[in-house]
Specification:
This protein is an alpha/beta fold. Helices cover 36% and strands 15% of the residues. The protein has helices spanning 12-18, 59-72, 83-91, 108-117, 133-139, 162-171, 184-187, 222-235, 241-251, 254-273, 292-298, 316-321, 352-358, 374-385, and strands at residues 76-80, 99-103, 124-128, 144-150, 175-179, 197-201, 215-219, 278-282, 305-310, 327-328, 338-340, 364-368. A 7-stranded mixed beta sheet has the order 1-7-6-5-4-2-3, sandwiched between helices. Helix 2 (59-72) runs parallel beside helix 9 and helix 3 packs parallel to helix 4. It is globular and about 70 Å long. The structure holds pyridoxal-5'-phosphate.
């Protein structure tokens, strides 16, 4: 459990820089040392030392776990080897016969875990449009133990009303898990809105530099903390000391990066919506977005992710591969602008009928707006779209 008084009164752009302890308690080092060790010497039987084996606890990883808990305003944070390892840890709370309600627009790997993997162990699920509270309510069964929602969703940018979902979850004694990857705690803190658990692909905005795969779970209670300590020890997917250090360093510039991602994304969304080759633009920061008001209510920003459709599917490959600075690559949330084709990349595992239902078509492109000079980005986009 973190000591919440540590950075009380400081705003989040200071917290990201200072970290949790700020300096190494042992040496005063201002950069968190990398405790590159697998094991720790014991001082006696039942000596009660905090550190024994790095799969369970490691000082470098603990600094990062405490930092993410502090940023999300949770009770404890757990760094994992990937976002999907963090998602797996959450679903591992469920047992045979339990039921989970999920957003029908969801990261492909999360879909695979629940629809292809956990189903083999008797965990049932229902996919719903997560911005439709009545649909969520209607999907709740006596055995529903969890609502799992991305917001905004990947890739359609649908926004769930987190407080409303929390009310529904509480009424049914279910846990609310929010995947906060797209906005990061800089713009949105689901636990403050009633979520029980926050998960992240830390690979994206938190690490921010396309150099590490990492994931997080943050919890709002000591009971949940105990569960994830157990999971960390038992599933064995805790982040390494070296990667923990890299992500801690990445987070130092989170505030600056998120502001720049957003500033660039707003300009790019405006450019795209007026472009003759573009059909629809999905960006939560556009006033015409269906969830603009909910977004403004629950988040302090709109982030750097845009999806858009082309009017024609003819030259999608040429558009994707003709960028000079915008790279055709999977992933998102780093300093470089990346463009992705969800149909064959991130969301290939989603069945066609669900893809069609949510609008994930062969003309949909997902654009992670980087922190480069915005005029350079827009010039590049314009050139790419000339191939459409
Ligand atoms: C990328 C992503 C994940 C999976 O994270 P990895 O770090 O790639 O394992 C989960 N959820 C969302 C919303 C993502 O974008």
């Amino acid at each position: 459990m973190i000591d919440k008084s540590k950075r009380e009164g400081l705003s989040i752009d200071t917290k990201v820089v200072r970290g949790y302890d700020g300096v190494d308690p042992l040496t005063g080092a201002v950069s968190t040392p990398i405790y590159q060790t697998s094991t720790f010497q014991n001082t006696g039987i039942n000596s009660g030392i905090k550190y024994s084996y790095s799969r369970c606890n490691n000082p470098t990883r603990d600094q990062l776990g405490n930092l993410i808990a502090m940023l999300e305003n949770g009770v404890a944070g757990f760094p994992f080897t990937s976002g999907l390892a963090a998602v797996l840890a959450c679903f591992s709370m469920l047992k045979s016969g339990d039921h989970v309600v999920l957003s029908n627009d969801i990261y492909g790997g999360t879909y695979r875990q629940i629809a292809e993997f956990f189903i083999k162990y008797g965990v049932k699920h229902t996919f719903v449009p997560i911005d439709d509270n009545d649909a969520v309510e209607a999907a709740m069964l006596p055995e529903t133990k969890m609502i799992f929602a991305e917001t905004p969703t990947n890739p359609m940018m649908t926004v769930a009303d987190i407080s409303k979902l929390s009310e529904i979850a509480k009424a049914h004694k279910a846990l609310l898990v929010i995947d906060n990857t797209f906005l990061s705690p800089y713009f949105q803190r689901p636990i403050e809105l009633g979520a029980d658990i926050v998960v992240h692909s830390g690979t994206k905005f938190l690490a921010g530099h396309h150099d590490t795969i990492c994931g997080f779970v943050v919890v709002n209670s000591s009971d949940l903390e105990e569960h994830f300590e157990y999971i960390t020890k038992t599933q064995g997917a805790a982040l390494s000391p070296m990667d923990s250090w890299l992500v801690t360093r990445g987070i130092k510039t989170l505030a600056l990066r998120m502001e720049r991602h957003q500033e660039n994304a707003l300009k790019c969304a405006d450019f795209l919506k007026n472009h003759p080759k573009v059909d629809k633009v999905f960006y939560v920061g556009l006033p015409e977005h269906k969830s603009y008001e909910v977004s403004k209510k629950q988040a302090s920003g709109f982030g750097g992710m845009i999806s858009f459709t082309l009017k024609s599917n003819k030259n999608v490959n040429e558009v994707l591969t003709s960028g000079k600075i915008i790279m055709f690559a999977e992933s998102l949330g780093g300093v470089n602008s990346l463009i992705t084709y969800p149909l064959t990349q991130t969301h290939w595992s989603i069945p066609e009928e669900i893809r069609n239902e949510i609008g994930l078509t062969d003309t949909l492109l997902r654009f992670s707006v980087g922190i480069e000079n915005c005029e350079d980005i827009i010039r590049d986009l314009d050139n790419m779209l000339s191939f459409a």
